[in-house]
Amino acid sequence: MSNGVSPSTNPVSGGDIRDSLIIGLDVPSVEEARTIVTRIGDAGTFYKIGYQLAYAGGFEFARELIGQGKKIFLDLKLHDIGNTVEEGVRSIARMGVTFLTVHAYPQTMRAAVTGKAGSNLKILAVTVLTSYDDNDLVEAGYAPVSAAELVARRAGQAREIGIDGIVCAATEAERVRAIVGPDSFIVTPGIRPSGSEAGDQKRIVTPGDAIRNGATHLVVARPIVKAADPRAAAEAIVKEMGDATA
């Protein structure tokens, strides 16, 4: 299986629907992550590894999963001086992961684009974290800019710089799609199936709504990895995504 993903305006109907669900392995150990992947089986093809697992052996586990034909979204949200980001991205590109996140600051995005040159790695820019709302931005000194306005501004900059895709809340996906055009990835975390708890996410929608809003990929962690039956939970979300494109 190729580690590349071809973006389109309707990625679910254009390919394997399972590839549009990214399962977040937000667990503290490789052993627990491996157990989850085994339980999910072929219902899951794409996995996210973030801080918690990455710094607990997750980089080697990513290589293991890639060797099994799985796709990997390495969610590191890089942001540093340009040279550091560029060289870090260049090293990550050699791992064979599919997606890598950086924060959507222009200098950081330009460095990431340079660092991934010649590889199949796709860079995703994180606009505004889904755990933030307008009050959080006021506290951080962004007032009077709202979360929606900041997302739009950063999405436009990402498009101009040549970033492959955007990470944003699904509530902003439709607006972002109008900014970045039809060929960019839009990856939305903060997804909660109907009836599940919001947790620490403040800007959330259901899987079906996210797809209808223009998302190409959905990141789902707790509703799957904490489920009594992770495979069944993943299959239910995939079905909801498919129903949204019917």
TrEMBL record:
Orotidine 5'-phosphate decarboxylase domain boundaries: 20-237
Give the protein's recorded name: Orotidine 5'-phosphate decarboxylase
Entry GO MF terms: orotidine-5'-phosphate decarboxylase activity
For the ligand (substrate), the binding residues are 26, 48, 75-84, 130, 192, 201, 221-222
Question: Which pathway or pathways does this protein act in?
Answer: Pyrimidine metabolism; UMP biosynthesis via de novo pathway; UMP from orotate: step 2/2
Catalysed reactions, semicolon-separated: orotidine 5'-phosphate + H(+) = UMP + CO2
General function of this protein: Catalyzes the decarboxylation of orotidine 5'-monophosphate (OMP) to uridine 5'-monophosphate (UMP).
For this UniProt record, the keywords arranged alphabetically read as follows: Decarboxylase, Lyase, Pyrimidine biosynthesis
Note whether Lyase occurs among the keywords: yes
Q: Which family does it belong to?
A: Belongs to the OMP decarboxylase family. Type 1 subfamily.
EC assignment: the record states 4.1.1.23
GO terms in the biological process aspect are:
'de novo' pyrimidine nucleobase biosynthetic process; 'de novo' UMP biosynthetic process
Oligomeric and partner information: Homodimer.
**Which residues are the active-site ones?**
75 (for ompdecase activity), 77 (proton donor), 77 (for ompdecase activity), 80 (for ompdecase activity)
The terms describing its cellular component in GO are: cytosol
Instruction: Please give one Pfam family short name.
Output: OMPdecase
